[in-house]
Each structure stands twice: as structure tokens, then as C-alpha cells.
User: Fold these one by one.
Assistant:
Number 1:
Amino acid sequence: MVLKIRLARFGKRNAPFYNIVVAQARTARNSKPLEVLGTYDPIPKPAPQGEGKPFKDIKMDTARAKYWLGVGAQPSEPMWRLLSMIGLMEPKYSIQKMQQAEAEQRAARKEEAADASEGR
Amino acid sequence: MPPRIRRPYLRTPQALPSPSHRCQCICKTRARQFSSTPKHATRVRDEMFRWLNGPGFVFRHPLPGSTNYLNAYDRYGRLVRAKNRLVGKNEKEKAEDEEKIDENADEEVNEDGEIVPKKPQKIKEAGIKETKNEPALPRETMEDLMPFPLNRQFRSQHVLSEELKDAIYERVMAEGQSVRTVSAALGVEMSRVGAVVRLKALEKEMEKQGKPIAFSYAKAVLGMLPSTPYVPYAPVTHESINDLPVHRATETQIFHPVSESRHFTRRDAGKVFDRELKPAEERVPHTELVQLEKWRHEGKIEVERIRLQREMEAKDVQSKKALERKRKEREAREMRKVDTERSEFRFQDIRVESVGRSGRSKEGVGARYGIPHQDRKKGQIKIPMRVA
């Protein structure tokens, strides 16, 4: 069966708090996982002394995460985003990627336009 | 000197007279009485007016720079602590009282509501001290600092004067002195120094924003409390700054027999209470003052002592910087910060093994499985029991 690296919701109403877990894909969300890799607090805490951006705390055992990815565990989409932040996964929807693609398309269109004008 | 008789004040009226009562003296002469007050209350009112026009007259124009509590005056309305200073003749006293009243009148004219509360008073006090040939008014004794005549246990405690607060803020923020140094120099506890600096900063911030500040209120309250003045070159000690905090481990009584031949010091006694307990001289807030006294006992001259103290302070600063650097390095090693558009993600590396073999250890990260929350249960203490 497929192993997943996913989030399990704990915490109270309006105050979500997640465990980052490794579990069988078909088991229930909050069932006992194979391993708890860490936690994710999605509620941003205000920056200390009001300087800079608010921050979100993530605690994670990166070594174990690498191991589980190595043996074929598949991150869920939110986990993919988090893992790609610390370079454990290739970003799925990277803004830079999209911008690069757009730039390439624009360049290609320009070339086409130039070719067409030369052909005239 | 005759003994102080202060009890009679207990019979002074408790409530302020209403306007109708105030005109009672005049009403008395009239033919018709509209008041339906029973006869026995009239005597009390008579007494009240006798007090208001007699010994209570001094309170109409309170003495500047004094708390003006009832207990500071005797039954004839004379300031008890000024008795020694005066010759004791009634006429002279009356003349002086009038003088005082005049001064007060001046003060009232001069002041506008926006003046920082203590300053005008202090100037006045200094003026009295300098201009008069007589010795200055002595400081208020504990007997004088009883605001409630019925509560003889309650004594007003001194508060920091506005100048002293300004001086503390100036020294810490403008001159960059450490809280420890300022505390030792001015005789104010370190926590209080910190609080003064924070509150002063807040006040200045409010001033900058143009928010109204309750000066009149502060003036009124501070006028009723004794305050520690600021004397730049001979600071007045505000409070005891080097009190030994009570450690939990020392709260029990221990009977610990020791053989006479054994060299048993305070350090050893501390260890009897707790193996980790430091000796008293290392647990007091100002350890450097203890060290200073030790050097003095060793017979070191002042220049040498100052040099040694400077060295010690420099070393302190160095070690603090090193600690801060280490903390930052550790944070950088363990924490990875990723900036996104809205917020910063802080990844902290942890060990999965911290949950222990059973997977239920409290040191482990994350919500535990199979351990229900107790927070909805009856009788759970929800207020924090200790500060992290």
C-alpha cells in the first residue's frame, strides 16, 4: 500500500494544529500513523517587536523525512509545499518556474513576430 | 516634650459637610429652623465646625512637599515634626502659618495644569530650605506616614519622584549605563529600574503621538505620597537593593548534625538544602557589591578597587556577548527560515526518537495518540502555574 507524508489535524475549533505524519494512504486522517515526523502550526504568530513578517512554526525531523521519501513515501500537496521549501522536493508550483516559462513564451512569440516581419 | 496625643482625631468627621451644613453657623441665629435633624447630631456638627476652624484649618492650604496626613499634626493643628524646630510660641507659629498660606497662594497662581507634578513642589521645598534661617523641615517619620488614622498598621511607602524617574531613564537610555549600574548607584531595585525605563519610554511615545497624559491626576496622587528625591551627587537610597531571594529549597527546616572538627561554611549549609544551591553571596541581585566589599576588607586602595571593578564589568559584557553569539549560532544551525509573500516559515529540526520507546513521552514533539485532553475536565487548573 502507498505510504503518505501528510498532515493530521489536531487542535481545537478555529485553532488548527497539525501533526506531520507518515501513514498508510487509506487509513483515517487521525488514526495512529507509522511515525510522527513533526508538527505544523498554520496560525501565523506576530513578529517579535513588530519587525518583519509574522512567522509560522514548523518542527520536523528532516533526516527521517528524507528516509521516508527515499523509500517511496508520497507527500500530500500541502506537505509537498512545505518540503519543497527546505529543498527536499522539487517545487510543484514554483512562482519562479511559472515566471520563467512565461518569459520563454514571450521570447518565442517575439521571435515568431520577427520572422514574420522578415518574411515580408 | 509632652507625649503625642493623636487619638482625639478619631473623632473627626468622616464625611464632607454638605452645602446646607456649611451654612449652619449662620442659620443658628435665625428664628425659624428648617432642619429636622435630631438634637444630638448638632453637637457633632458643632464639633466638626470647631475642628474645621481650629486644628483642621491647616489642611485648607496643605503644606507643599509634605503628605499632610492627619497624624502628622497634633490636636492643636501644629505639625508635630516641626515642633522641635519652632520655639513653641503660639503667636510666632500663627505668623508662620500665615506665611505658609501666602506661599501656597503663590503656588496656586503660578501653576497651570500642564506642569510635571513634582517639580513645582520640589522647587518650593528647596526654596524653603535655602531662604529661611531656621533648619529645614525634618523628613517625615513613620508615625507621620499614617494616611488612615484608624489603621495604625498601614504606613505609606516612598515612591520615586518624577526627577528620579527622569534621571533613571536618562542614565539607561541616553548614557547607555547598564540597569545593574544604575540600580546600585541610585539605590533602586533592578526590576524597578527596568519598569521605570519601560514606562518612561511609553510615556514619551504617547507624548509623541499627541495623546493626552493625566498630569493633574499624577500630581494629585504623588502629592499625597512620600517620595524619594533625586540628589545627583548624593543619591538617596530608595529601597534595599540587595535582598536575598528565598529559594524553594530553603523553605524546609533541616536539622543537620555536623562534627565540631569539620570546617562548615555557608556554602556547605546551602548544599545541605540542595546540592545545586549556590551560596548567598552568589544569589543576591548585586553580586558585584559583595565583591567590592571583599576587596575593601582585603585592604585594596580605591584606585585599585575601581580598576578591578572596571575589569569585572568588561568581562561581564564580554561573556554576555559570547552567550548571545552562541545562541544566535545555535538558532541558525537548528532553524531554517523561508520567506514567503505573507509570512516566514521557521523550520526547526527535531528528533523523532524524542517520543521514547512507547511513543508517549512528554518530551516528544506533536500531539500524542491515545492521550485525551484534560482541559474540559472538572477541576482542571487553567491559569499558568509557572512562568517559562
Number 2:
Amino acid sequence: MSFKEYKSTVEYGDTVLLYIGYNNILPLIVKKGQTHQTKFGALPHDTLIGKQYGSKIHCPKGWIIILHPTPEFWTMCLPHRTQILYSTDISMIVFQLDLKPGSTVAEAGTGSGSLSHAIIRTILPKGHLYTFEFHKERYMKASEEFIQHQIGDYVTVTHRDVCGEGFQLTNLVDAVFLDLPRPWECIQSAKEAIKKEGGRLCSFSPCIEQVQKTCEELTKLGFTDITTMECLVRNINVQNATLQNITLEEQTAPSFTGDANAETDEFKSKKLKTENADVKTSKKSTDNYCFPAAVPALTMPGHTGFLTFASIYMH
Amino acid sequence: MPMANNIIADGDHVIFKRDGTCRVFQIKPDRQAYFEKVKFTVNDLIGQQFGSTFKVDRGNLVKLSETKVLELEQVASEPGADNRNLLDSESNQKMRLEDIQKMKSDGLSGEKIIEELVENSETFDSKTSFSQAKYLKKKKKKHLQMFTVLRPTARLVMEIFSKEPAKICFLRPDTVSQILNFSNVMYGSNVAVVETCQGLVLACVLERLGGHGKVIHIVPNTSDTLCRQVMNYFNLTKDQLDHFYSVPITCLKVETDGTQHKSLNINSSTEIPGDTLVSYSRTELPAIEMLPDRTDDVNEAEKSDIMTEEKEAEKKKREVKREEKQKRQEAAAALIQNKKLDSLIIACKYNPLPVVKKLIQFLPPSRCVVVYCQYIEPLVECYTWIKEQQVGCQLKFSETWCRDYQVLPNQTHPVINMSGTGGYLLTYTTVSKLS
């Protein structure tokens, strides 16, 4: 049952993920009689049936791994219809909105459904997500996907511009998430949607001017604990790094009658190495310093958006 | 959620929150609380709603209405242009310490005192609006003892530890949030957790299970004093705690015959040596105190020779409890050995690689593993090993950089101090070995 719970083997109608390589994952709906072309050659869907999730599948020119879908994988491989939220921000949003099974949430806009999947995973089976999208195509595509992923029961997708028309929800949700060009325009409506006993709100905006206006409006409407933050992920690679050791003292001929006993072994081992090595490099009296290095990525996304969180207590 | 759920009850853990400061407190009749240098009794909190704001008035709590709260948050201003004429001098404030103390003992409200302070300040009017706001904020903090009482959530509990992160292995909200998401913990999951964060990770996972599935705390055999104090903060119900298990890592045995049949593995789990069980019950002692009378009874029974019958009964009771524990441990061990785990989370002060090596043998393919460590080096080793052994895919090694912002009209900027590290994360998905 795809995103809702784990299952062990593949059946027709499942959304499976084809792991081709690091950060190279493709979603696939398994259909009878169909064939999928991968970079390793043809993959008939029928061969996947009954296979255990996580197993390796041989293709004509290599192998791939079939993986069980998770919201995090989905975020990596979903068809982009908009700019999407990524897992670092998503994790923070879900956590800071105090979401757990049973929570009800309002989200605007749905976009490509990246965050929606993570929210639904956390709040099911008794919680519910009300998500709003003003773009008709995106609204339809998202609705289809939720049903395809068998999480349609936990979400209501509405085609509406909440900025003009509001959420039209009253005293219903525990949390509101806004990813809109003018979030400050629907904070009043968000406040009405939040349960009388209180709740949380998050607004995601790429520009500081948007944050400024949003915070002003939040303060005006009685929200408290307003915090704005930025979260960036720094990916680390592990490599075997080599640095050259240079000679620090003027070289004298190695003397085995030298005073430092500890050095003797070192000289011996060096001597051995030198003897074994190519005669041409025998001049090199230094070894290389080799170590496993944790290397941060050379370039990284330096900005995604500002996350503004706020609470409203009993209102 | 029904409204009854939102009422503070005797025995509840609550969070006192005031600006950036959070404290957890267990409500008990006549208990004195000490928060932000003020002492008060908590009796008046029982029966109030979570989310209420209170003021301390000479040791008593006064509930504030919503409009009142907002009023106090507002800042008055008729600002000066800049600070060229400001001199730092004692004479700027006409009121002396004795005056303020007298006002306090006369029972004047904090608002009144601040009003007087502003009136008697020579320099207040010529301050810029920014520094006026700052001044008022400072005085409010000192003279208005206001705080809000909230239901504990993972987010608020993290705030308690923001000033002493060493107690929870330097976990930060962003790291905890990623541990919970990348492990794909959800309603009904079976999650194995190795943690030394005082039960914080266990509680967060338990909360995300929504009363279904299992959290299995995998503990070292030798540890007598495993602390799970933080689990108490979450007001977890008996029903939720029924889904919590604890198993010594030494009890977990890999099937050696190589056959991956899914038959019940009861035989192997009953072969646990006796001393393991003893140490298991010892590790259980400092855990959640569901039965506070337990230790007291033991001491009394030892003292009195007359009550041998009671002693016997007590002994039997303990025996039953121990058996119960043993059964639960066996059930959890069997679940792990039958490869029914959905997620593995490691966030501890133990060397992670040996733990990873042992535990991933019990994970079925296509399941999520998250290893957190406050240091980078142990995870470099884990990364290298996982890569070499090809036991997983989508191996991701990362840290997060997180910065707070002050957002105010014309003075928006990053907060001066930020956390330098929230530890490191290694996440990957298990795969079956290529046959």
C-alpha cells in the first residue's frame, strides 16, 4: 500500500522507485504487460511482480534496485510542476508545526506535493490535510497522485486561491502552512481555520521582504513566539585524501648508530620501502600522509527560503 | 481533539514558557515552582487550559486575559533621532533601588513600576525608538513575571535543552526533525532505537507512532543507569507506553543456518542466559516510573520480619513483574530477529560502527537507517564500511546549518549568536545482497 505502510513484495498498481545510482531515482507505476526503458536496457514490469522491495534487478546492461516509496524519496524524484520544498526544510516544518498522528493541517499551495506527502505520512490515519492550489493543472495532478499513492483518504485537495477567497475553514486545524507569494494576505483566514484552543503556523518565503510583512501581520493578529530561521544542508563526501610530507630538516645520511632509538625503526622501514620502490624515486625521502577525509560539497544551495513559525494560543 | 484534553490536570508535566526560556514542571498540589527567579505555588494551574498566560503576584498566579497579554506586548514610542546626546550616568534614573523595593512591597503592579521608571528616566524620551523598545523589554523581563503554560511537545522539550545540549548528545531541532523524517517513522512502524539522549528520541518516535507499532530501545548489556527521564515530560498515556520495549543488544542473535524462513523464532529468544535477564531488570529500574511504590515497599519489607506473608506476596508480585518484563523483552527480540523492523535510529554516545554492524543484520531490505553522531569521525568510518559492504543505497552524510533571524521593522538581521553544530547525520536505505 505504497506510502501508507510498508509491504514486502511488488504488486501491480504499486508505485515503485527504481534506484539507478546515487541521487538518480525514478518513480514507476507497475502495470501489466508494460516495459520501461532504463539506461541499463529494457525492464518489463511483469518481472518486478513478487520481487522483494530492496532487491537488485538485473537489466540487460546492468542492475538497478527497486525501492519502497517514502516521502523523502518522492521529494527526490517527483515530477516538478513548481519549485519544491526539500527534505531539510520539510523535516523542520513538520517538527515545528508539532505534527503527529491525528493532527489536522491546512496547506497552501499544494505545488508539486513534496511537503504534502511528508505531512500525510506523519498525521495518518486519523489526521487530515486540507491542501489548496490555485493552478488548475497542478490541482488535478496532485489529486491524481494522492489517489495513486493510496493516501487519498487523508487529504482534501481544493482548487482555490486562498489569498482572495480564504481557507473557508473554521476552528478546524492544528496547523497551517503557507507557501504563497503574498502570505500576509491570508493570515486572518489562517487564524480562523486554527482551532480555538490554539495552534501553529508556518510561512515559507524566499525573500526577506515577504518575511517582514508576514511577521508584521502575525504580530498584529495576536500570534506569539514568532521565529524566523533558515536551514541549509551541507552534504559531506568521504574521500581518501593524500597530502605530501615535506622534509623539514636538512638531510644527513641515515645513521643506524644514531642516538634516538625510536627513529631507528622508522629509518629501517623507510629504507625497506625505498629499496622496494622504483630506483628513480629513491631520491624522495618523504612519505605521503594518507587519510579518509570528510569533504563538504564544493558548491551547495546557499538559500532555499526563510521559515517563519508562530503560535496562537487560545483565541 | 475534545476540549477536556486541553485542561491541566494533577500529575501532568507542563511547560512554562517565557520568551526564549522554557522549563518543564510536574503539577502536584501544593508544590512550589521556581521559574525565572520567581517562586509560586502551582495549585491554581489545575483545571486551567493549556495555552493560558499567567502573572505572578506576590507568590500567587493571576490568569491574564488575551487582550491584556497583547497590551503588555505593545511598545510605546516617541523616539529621539540618535544617541549623540546620551551619557551613561547613574543620575539618569531618578528612582533609587529603595524606591522600587518600596513600591513592590506596597503591592504595586509591575506595569506601574515600569511606568514610574520611564517617567523618572531623564534619558528615555531622547532614546531612539529601538533603544526605547529594548529598555522596556528589559524592564518588563525584570518586573513583569509573566509566563505561558503549555502542553509539552517535542519542539518545546528541545527548547528546554537549547541551553544545555550536551545532555542530549548535542541534538538540535533540525537534526531531531531529520532523524524522524528520514527514518520514515509513521503510524504503526516498528522502530529500533539506540539512544543516550535521556529518552528524548524514544519519546519523539513514540509520539509519531500514534499508539500503534513498537519502539524498541536497544540497550547495552552493562548499562545499569540508563536514563529515560525525558520520556516522562511527554505525558505519554499508559496505552502509548504499552508500545515501548527495551532489549539488551546481547540478546539479539542472528540465525546461523542461513535459511531466511519467517517461522516464529521463540526458541532462540528463550535461550537467553540468566544473567542477561537480571541485568535487564536492573536497566529497567531507572526507566519511566510507572510504579512509584515499588522501591519503598522493598525497603519496608526488608526491615520488618513480622510481615513475612506480605513479604512473600511482594516477592510474588515482583516475580510476576519480572516475568512480564521478560516476556516483553522476548517478544521484542523475536520481532527484531524475525526481521519485522521498519526503521533503525542510532543517536548515542556509543561507538556507532559496531552497533550498526550488529543491528543492520536484522533489517529487511528497503528500510531506512539513520545514524546520528555529535562527532564527524565515527560517521566517516560508518560511511566507508557501508559503502564497501554494499549493504545500503542512497547513502547520505550531512550536517545542517541553521540560523535564526530577528525580524523587526527596519532592523531585520540574523540573530547575533547561533549554534555552531547540531551534529552529523548518516542516512541510507537497506538493500538485499546481490545473489
Number 3:
Amino acid sequence: MSKIYDVIILGGGPAGLSAAIYSSRSKLDTLVLEEKRKAGGQPTTYEDMENYPGVLGKTAPELMEDFREHAEKFGAIIERGEAEDIEVDGFLKTVKTKDGQEYKGKSVIISTGAEPRKLGVKGEEEFKGKGVSYCATCDADFFVDLEVVVVGNGNSAIEEAIYLTKFASKVTVIVIHDEGIMDAEKILQEKAYQNDKIEFVWNSTLDEVKGEGLVDTAVLKNIKTGEKTALSCDGIFIFIGRVPRTDFLEVTGVDLTDNGYIKTNQKLETNLAGVYAAGDVRDKFLRQVITAASDGAVTAMAAGGYIEEEEYWQENVLEAEEDVLVAFWSPTNEDSLEMINKLEAMDLADRGVKLVKIDTYKNTLISERYEVEEIPTVLKIKDGEVVDNLVCPSLTEVEEIL
Amino acid sequence: MLEVDKNSFEEEVLQAEKPVMVDFWGESCTVCLELMPGVEELAEKYSNEMKFCKLNIKGNRRLAMSQQVMGLPSMVFYVDGEKVEHLSGDDLTIEEIEEEIKKHI
């Protein structure tokens, strides 16, 4: 039988590596499956890392290298592989990869991230590598003293426009919104306005890329007037947001939003028990390295709790040889405390019945699975099946089911 | 793989007898670095049928642009000194490169 990991993490970006740090430090057997040879995710294609607390004077790729080293220090295994499918069979999850490998785990954290959105305009595909680019750090070198266009107005677009001014002689930013409105943070907007090399075209989108061999013209379209203008330029950088990498989840039954992001609750659980989502891939407000790292920590701890609860339940209840009386209680509920005392005084063990207490404050997994709504609740379980269900029972009622 | 630059490009690439693939790369291009080991393997595998060169664009920017390369990664194929194909994009895969190689051998 193949090895069963405690936690399998899909994707080795900031979210996945942070999850790996937390889970491997908690002594959970942790595997990270990363599609690329080098872990690190999206920040590996950026330059500056200006807003990760406590990190000054390090580039984004350097910080990601530290994340990886940190995860490996606590024993996380990073392997190459791109998930194609997740099969959930109760507690056992099987991750299948594109190259035909199968990995088994008790929990899965999906942190596959996002990738740049393509605009899909005429000429965009044809001029890839010939002036159309999605990566400023990769291609900025080519545009020394040349004129470029940046399409987009979010954080990435404006950050990269500023970065490109170190190379290009002029950077024209194409913004779809009204004059003065951008999606980027204020601090970036101000920097862009103050930069002499940056100019803006408002209310406009890129309509077509033209050139002979290399890009020489960006055709812009004013979305208010429909008017098209040709802007002469040497390069076009497209940063119009990202799309989540969730295509592979379509058959797994993981709930997605209309835009393809994974839906999660506060514990970052998906709709499948033991399957979590962290980082840019999930539906959330802010997509940054720090929020990805935070998600990683949450999912690793949630997965750890899930494994503990599930294993305790299986060993002590489902696989028990004797009948089991499960008492659901909570430290804040007086009645339930009293009931626990009474049950403990009944010498159940002598009568061949095992008493298992579930603290519903800490263990929501089991109480939700058995739809326990009121406390105290007592379940009698025989060979793994519920045979009696008592809500707020009297001692006499408990006696009757024994 | 043979390292070429602006001085050796003409002789090694344009005047080569076999079809040539040139891997234009740069140190700050993570996609290029990601692809490179796979490209090295392909170079090994098809070494009899095709010549494989790599060109670091640092210091060779003009040459790259003369070859209409203005973005990385770029895999450019030459047959008899003529540019016949140019693969690029940050989603370029080793499989796509191998398929292109097969077309020219």
C-alpha cells in the first residue's frame, strides 16, 4: 500500500509553502506538489517586495526561496507534479497528477494560485515574444529607450509600469475607467502620477496589436465613444488581472464561484470535508503574499484538527468492539456538564458500554456530521451505526437505551 | 548546447547545415530557467538531427531584436539560415517545443 500523507498541498506558492511550514512543524507528514521545477509561485516573476512585514531589502524571488527553505527545514517534502484530479473517499483522499502519479492523503490543501489573464484581442497571440508580454522582469531589458504600453490599472499593472520606466523612455498606461480612477492602491497611483515617463489614456482598452515582425502599433478603443486610435509603440505589457487555476477541479465537486474561485468558509474548508483552499485560488477580498501566507497557516491548522478529530472518532467509535455512548457536551453548557458527570458515575464500562465525550466547542466536524443541534445530546452507536439519538435526555431515558 | 552570441551567431546559426533551434534566455526570466533543463534534454535527444544553441540576451539585445525576438522565453527555429518558427509565451511547454522540433527534422 502506498504511503498516506497527513497533508497534501497542491501548489508551492506563498500559500502552499506557508501551509507546509505550519503543518510540518506540527509534525504532520506533509507533501507539496509543485508543477514547476522551482517552488515559489507568482512572486518569483516579480522584482520588488515592498509590503511583506519585516522584510526589507529582499526581492520577491528571494523571499520565496526563504519560504521554501523554511518549509523543508521542518520536513515538508516538495515534489514536482501538477494535480489533475482529487478523489475523496471519506477520510482518504487521492490526488492524481498529469504524469500519472497517485498520492494518498488524509487532507488536501488546494493552493494552485492564479495566472495572468489573457486579453484575447487580435494580434495578442501572434506577437507573443515579439513585443507582447505578461512579465516585465523577463522582458524589460528589451525596451531600453523604447516606448511601451501597459494595459491595466490594478496593482500589478501600475507596479510594473513604474518598474518599466527604469528601462523604457515612455510608458503609456491604458485605463478602462474614467480619468483619475484606478484599481491600484493609492500609494502606487501617486508614484505613477509623479513619474515623468508615465502617461495615461483613460476610458480605453487595447483593441488590436499590429506590427511587422515586431509590435509597432497598439490600436486603442475608447469605450465611451467607440473611437479607435493607433498608438505607436515598441512593446505592449498586459496586466489585466488573473484567473484562478481551478480547471482541474471541475469534476471533483469542489464548489466554485462563477469566476472559478474556490468557495471557502472561515476555516477555509471547501464543501468537501478535509479539503481546504488557500491563497489566490480562493474567493477572497485581498490577494497578496501576506494573505496567502495567512491562508496557509489557517488551512494547515484546520487540516491538523480535522485529522485528529477524524482519527479519534474512527478509533474510539466506529471501530469500537463494544457499544458506544457518545455524549456531546460543551464547557459553556451547564446541563451538558451535569450529564457528563452522571454518565461517568454510571460505571458504563462494567456494563460493556464505552463512553466517548465530544466537546462540540472544539470538535465541530463530528457534531455537524451527526447533525447535533442541541446540547446535551447522547448517541448510541453499535458497529459504527447510530441506533439511538437522545436530545437533552433524562437519566431514565439513557438507562432505557442501555 | 552551444552558447552563441552576437559574434558567433552568423556562423553557428545562420550558416549551419542542420536545422537549428536557438533558446533565447535571460537571467531574470524565471520561465526560461524553468524550461532550460527540459530543453537540454531535448538537445541531447535530437542531437543527431538538429543543432541546439542558447543565447543569453544580456549584451546581445540588438541581435535578438534583429531576429524579431522581443520577449522571453523565445525558441527560434532556423532552416538554411531562414527563420521558420518562433515559439514564445510564459505558458510555453517542453511538449510544445518537442513537437516543433519534430516538424523540422
